[in-house]
UniProtKB/TrEMBL annotation:
This is Non-specific lipid-transfer protein. The keyword Transcription does not apply. It comes from Olea europaea subsp. europaea. One of its GO terms (biological process) is lipid transport. SMART domains: AAI. Belongs to the plant LTP family. Transmembrane segments: none annotated.
Amino acid sequence: MVLVLSLLYCFAHLSNAAIPCGTVDMKAAACISFATGKDAKPSAACCSGLQQLAQTVKSVDDKKAICRCLKAGVKNFAGVQEKFLTQIPNACKIKVGFPVSMNTNCET
C-alpha cells in the first residue's frame, strides 16, 4: 500500500473515489515487505499490482484518490520506512508524476 505507497494512502477513504481504497490496498499489499525493509527489492507481485493500478488512472482525480488511499493504508503498517517507499516507483518502472512519500500532498 506503500504506494505508493503513496502513494497508497495518500489515501483517505473516499466514498466518491473512482477507484475504491479496497482495490488500491489489495493491489499494493505485496509491497509492504519491501516498504518495511524485509525484502531487498519489491516483489513481482508488488510491481504488477502497482502497474495495474497505474493503468486504471484516467484522470487527475483518479491519481489523487489512489494517493489518498495509499497514504491512509501505509499508516496501518508499522515499520514502513520512507527510504524504501520512495524507491518503489523506480524499482517497478512506474511513472507516478509526483514524489512518493508518506508526506506527499495528494491534493497538489
